[in-house]
Amino acid sequence: MKTNYIISTPRLGLRRWLPADVEPFARMNQDPVVRQYFPNLMTFDESAASVRLIERHFDEYGYGLYVVDVMSTGEFIGFTGFSHPGFDAWFTPCVEIGWRLKQEAWGQGYATEAAQACLDYGWGTLGLTKVLSFTTVLNTRSEKVMQKIGMTKVGGFEHPGVAEGHVLRPHVLYEY
Length: 176
Fold this sequence. Notes:
Elements: E1 7-8, E2 12-15, H1 22-29, H2 44-61, E3 65-70, E4 75-83, E5 96-101, H3 110-126, E6 132-136, H4 140-148, E7 152-158, E8 170-175
Helix pairs in contact: 1-2
């Protein structure tokens, strides 16, 4: 079991990425159900590149998208944390909170628990004053997490990284 957790709850440990995380992350990103609300699946190389970007974000800002492990087993179940969206919109630049968990971890309250712990850490330790979150309007499960952690819907937008006319382009935007 890993013990280098930056944030923890009774059930979950959140930490920076290790080389061993690339494989389970890549498997998760190849799951069509997990990637249902994204335009495509990710290859192994794309997942590995994503981990490198996440780690660069940590190096630059001191925070990022944390690996989420189940404390009792040390099992990698996904990520939750903060990032800076890489596109221009009326609300950027901003700090975004996001999450993605493997399908087997769904329905157990892990996303809400990890996101709430991240927000608490963001306010108390990082000194964040405003955090946004967004998802496609079709992703009601993720939107419910936003609501459960106390975020307020402030509008919507057309995601510039999704092709015009694509069903995933309309997004909801929440703020805390």
